[in-house]
Amino acid sequence: MRFRLLGALEASRDGAPFDVPRPRLRAALAFLLLNADRPVTAERLVDALWGESPPRTARNQVHTVVSGLRQALPPEAAGLLRSDPAGYRLAVDPDSVDVERFARAVTAARAAAADRRPAEAAGLLRGALDLWRGEALAGIDAPFAGPVRTRLAEERFAALELLADTELDAGRHHGLVPELTALLREFPDREGIAARLATALHRSGRPADALTVLRETRALLAAEYGLDPGRALQEAEAAVLRGDPPVRAAATLPTPAPATPAPAESAAPEAESVEPAAPAVPAAPAVPAAPPAPEPPARLRPAQLPQVSHGFVGRRAELDRLTCLAAAPTPSARNTPDTPGIPGTPDAAGPRLAVVVGPAGVGKTAFTVRWAHSAAAGFPDGQLFVDLHGYDENERETAPRVLERFLLALGVPGHRIPEDPVLREDLYRSTVAGRRLLVVLDNAQDYEQVRPLLPGAPGCFTVVTSRGRLGRLVAQTGAVPLRLGVLPRDEAVEVLARLAGPELVRAAPAAAADLADLCGGLPLALRISAVRLIEEPELPIGELAGELAPEQDRLAGLGLFGDDLTVSGALSHSYRRLTPDQARLFRLFSLHPGAVVPSGAAATLLEPAGTPLSTGTPAPARRLLRSLEDVHLLERPADAPGGYGMHDLVRLYGRQLVAAVGTDCRTAEGAEAAAALDRLAEWYIAHADAAYRLLDPKRLRPPTELELDWRGPAPFADADQAQQWFVQESDNLLALTRLGVAHRRHRLVWQLAILHFTHLMRSHRLGLLAEAQRLGEEAALAIGHRPAAAALANNLGIAYAIRRDRAAAGHLERAIAGYEALGEPGGAARARLNLGNMHYEFRELDRAAHYQEGAVTAARATGDDALLYQSLQNLALVRNEQGRHADARDLLVEALAVSERTGTELAVADTREKLAWVLQRLGEYQRAFDLSEGSLAVARRFGDLLMVGRAVDQMGMARIAQGRAAEAREHWEEAIRVFTGIGSVEAETVRRRLAEHFS
Predict the structure, then answer these.
(1) DSSP string of 711-730?
(2) CA dist., res. 601 & res. 299, Å (int)
(3) Fold agreement between 1-156+165-170 and 316-335+343-483
(4) Which residue in 175, 164, 183 sits closest to 118, CA to CA?
(5) Cross-strand bridge partners of residue 83
(6) What is the distance, to the nearest Å, from the Cα of residue 582 to the centroid of all Cα atoms in its chain?
């Protein structure tokens, strides 16, 4: 299939177009195509389609939109729009989308241009530009479309300007004139096009026409926008007036950075060269030329950039962003008292400055040097570079020492460089005034180390790299921060291929992907792994991945023998800069086994035992967390507000520090770590218990031992917040349960497991449900907690019964025996009820009815309403299967009355969904549909996916009986997706039903 977004949305299969009829479906398809083969959450779709003011039913409407989109796709392609826990994904080859083909062609063209292959670059660019059929996303009216349309338009202009530069480099200026003339006529305010057209005209022997173009553009900018001409127009005009070969416009225009390194001979550091200053530009061509002035003294043009790192991959968006920042017009050229500065660029009061930040080993230096080489031509007065060693106490550079080196490189004689640091700064800024220099300050520690080295000249552009955020530098200078993250898997694998050899990766692609994942996408770790593969040719890539797989061995494997280049070494520089409190939090944070840690849980790590639990994050802990984030030892995931995460390798380094002292309570450090683990588990138990109280306030409470002592208000305002907490923290609860087992914290393990039961069951994570309850029961037995052991055996039986596994019987019989030994008839009755449910799943209806009738009798005798409505429900299902539909209806009507009186909102919805099933058999199709629709809304809100699937299935059955086949099909297809997503065997039942009616 092929999809086209560079114009109106078009879709085709095997060359035959197919229509996506409704505007909202077209908008959703466009957004999914822009994220081809990547998951898109329902929240992102809501934002994309409705923006900041979505309707209350937006999430439900997303389901409807996706269902409609599946119907609009060709039948054999409908399965490409997939649902999974991460969201929706349109599983199409990105190359089938013209936006992606355009981007890849432009990237390849940049590489060809950088390698001095202009013909190839021009061909790629023309092919890429031919993909455009008009305005991108034409006809798509959705909030996301405008910003995307603007971005794509800018990328198109960048490609057009790169094509013009390539053709000019190849000497094809004559043929370029008509193309650029037409383009400027269409877009008269594009300075880059005007400058390039003037260059082409000048080289074609038409200087008068070149000046006309430049002056008309100057007049338009002044009249329409109140702007002075930018640097590109000024330089092009000066070149024409001098009659010199014009400076290539690409050097100063915002074209994207090339995506591959310059050839080796140009990438290596150049020797400093002597270059005379350019002659002054005359005021106008009619003024007679003055006698030539004496030539100014020669000045040095430094070229201090180090060599480009081999194997650089990706970062296209960041490279383009830095190029645009460097190419933005200088404040003096573009800003007037009535014209504010351009957003995203430094203001007129400070230097032009970008700050590249990111964690140790993420490749900040390699990225910056790579970009600097590509942009060097735009800074004809040279490039200054220094490694400030900001995080190395032994080699840290001082500002006076760096200034001396810079001044010498700029041609200032040593005897003229003052000793006084302030005078040295003044001389530096005076020397660079009027020059166009690129200054790279690598590996900075803080604002004070950087400030004296910032040039004040508007023609200079400075890039600072640092592990810290350098917030003060950003605040005081208007610097633009640019954060580098780890590489995605495909780019990480490409790094391995480029460094270790593509044959190695092609021979074992799965092992290469595993190795990239074990390196966490961290360029330093990837480079070390690649060097090991090169230096140890007998080591297959799969064996190296196997060596790094155990967490306790990974950091040791990410180092080079006889070399100090290690991931641990890089991280140690950051760790040694921490205060004692920061270092303590860093170590303890690494003990948390989850990917994202709520800030409140992290704060708990620092509190002594017995401190009342807090619903928020105390200010001192919040400041410590922010300080660790500032130096990129912690990170805040965009999709988890209020949470903090650690890169896997950073976490392992922290645990390595903890392992040095262990969790042996006989030592102070070990006792601290052990207490932190207990405190963390208690925080989760307390929150899970509070959430359980809201989600099932009238249900039998699990037998926990917790006494809640909250500092401040309760953690959740309502059931919706409680449910959302379980969704966000479920993986952390499981991870803590396993960690508690490893550390023999039995008292905590069984409580974590029992409180997690309801959420895992509702979300139908049955394998994890069984694991958690098994671990909990074993922990309860280990400390002789018989009530907890019986409850967990009952839960374990439920988990197996839902999976239609006869092993459920053994667990439930163990629960019955445990409850009877404790003298708890209510618990034993519940276990028998669940044993009846197991027999029902296997359609052993008489045995099921025996257990359900016993549960009803026990519930009536004890007045246990929660047990009563559950047993009435389940007995009704048995009667329905026995053909006694009226009896089943009466039982469910009674169960509904009980649940409405004493149950939760979800319990009521569950009873109504079961009543709908029986009403289908009695021919009451519309009432069945209405009940199912109401249950569906509640189930979605509480995340009960099994009920969601069953309710949608019921809606399909009602519609097929009413002769509304298209709606039935849509509901059944959604039911199949839900059941498949949770691994339920009911998916196959619905598939058979669908095939029966639509084959």
Answers:
(1) ESS-S-SSHHHHHHHHHHHH
(2) 60
(3) no
(4) 164
(5) 88
(6) 26
Sequence-distant contacts of 715-721: CB under 8 A, at least 24 apart? 715/615, 715/686, 715/687, 715/690, 715/691, 716/690, 716/691, 718/694, 719/694, 719/695, 719/904, 719/905, 719/942, 720/941, 721/694
Query: Which superfamily does 710-998 belong to?
Result: Tetratricopeptide repeat domain (1.25.40.10)
For residue 353, the cross-strand partners are 462
Return the closest-CA partner of residue 832 out of 847, 846, 813, 810: 813
Whether residue 307 contacts residue 269, with contact meaning beta carbons closer than 8 Å, is answered with yes
d(CA 523, CA 500): 13
**What number of other Cβ atoms are within 10 A of residue 320's Cβ?**
19
Q: Which residue has the tokens 């059929």?
A: 133
At residue 700, the 3 state secondary structure works out as coil
Handedness of CA 237, 241, 246, 251 (dihedral sign): negative
Beta pairing class for 461-466 and 352-357: parallel
Cα 302 from Cα 428, distance rounded (Å): 14
Residues of the chain with pLDDT under 70: 78, 84-86, 244-299, 328-351, 393-394, 560-564, 609-616, 638-640, 660-670, 697-714
Q: How far is CA 516 from CA 287, 488, 656, 789, in A?
A: 65, 9, 21, 43
Using the structure block, give the residue that is written with the tokens 């603007």: 150
Q: Which fold has domain 316-335+343-483?
A: Rossmann fold (3.40.50)
Query: Alpha carbon 366 to chain centroid distance?
Result: 22
What is the rounded CA–CA span in Å between residue 139 and residue 19?
14
Would you state the torsion angle of the CA atoms of residues 850, 853, 855, 859, taken in this order, to the nearest 10 degrees? -160
Q: Nearest Cα to 300, choosing from 412, 204, 404?
A: 412
Question: Greatest CA separation found in the chain?
Answer: 117
CATH 1.20.140.10 fits 171-256, yes or no: no
Tell me the residue type at 894.
E
Handedness of CA 705, 711, 717, 722 (dihedral sign): negative
Nearest 5°: phi and psi at 789? -60, -40
**pLDDT value for 266:** 33
Residue 208 is encoded by which pair of tokens? 């008068």
Amino acid identity of residue 840, one-letter, is Y
Q: Which CATH architecture has domain 1-156+165-170?
A: Orthogonal Bundle (1.10)
> Is pTM, for the whole model, over 0.70?
no
The bridge status of strand 299-301 relative to strand 273-275 is antiparallel
Q: How does 380-406 read in b/e, with b if 16+ C-beta sit within 10 Å? A: bbbbbbbbbbbbeeeeebebbebbbeb
CA distances (Å), origin 407, targets 16, 268, 269, 398, 438:
66, 22, 18, 15, 14
Domain coordinates in residue numbering, the chain: 1-156+165-170, 171-256, 316-335+343-483, 489-569, 710-998
Contact 226, 336 (CB under 8 A): yes
Could you tell me the two tokens for 572? 């140690």
Phi/psi for 230 (5° steps) reads -75, 180
Amino acid code (one letter) for 641: P
3-class DSSP assignment, residue 481: strand
By the 8 A CB rule, do 90 and 33 touch?
Answer: yes
What's the pLDDT tens digit per position in 539-570?
A: 788 888 888 888 877 888 887 655 567 788 78
- What is d(CA 81, CA 305) in angstroms, rounded to the nearest whole number? 48
Which run of H or E residues covers position 500? helix 489-500
Length, in residues, of the chain: 999
C-alpha 358/C-alpha 356 separation (Å) is 7
Give the whole-angstrom CA distance, residue 237 versus residue 233: 6
pLDDT digits (tens, 9 = 90+) for 673-719: 788 888 888 889 888 888 888 877 655 566 666 655 555 566 788 88
b/e per residue, 124-137, with b = 16+ CB within 10 A? bbeebbebbeeebb
How far apart (Å, rounded) are the C-alpha atoms in residues 303 and 309? 17
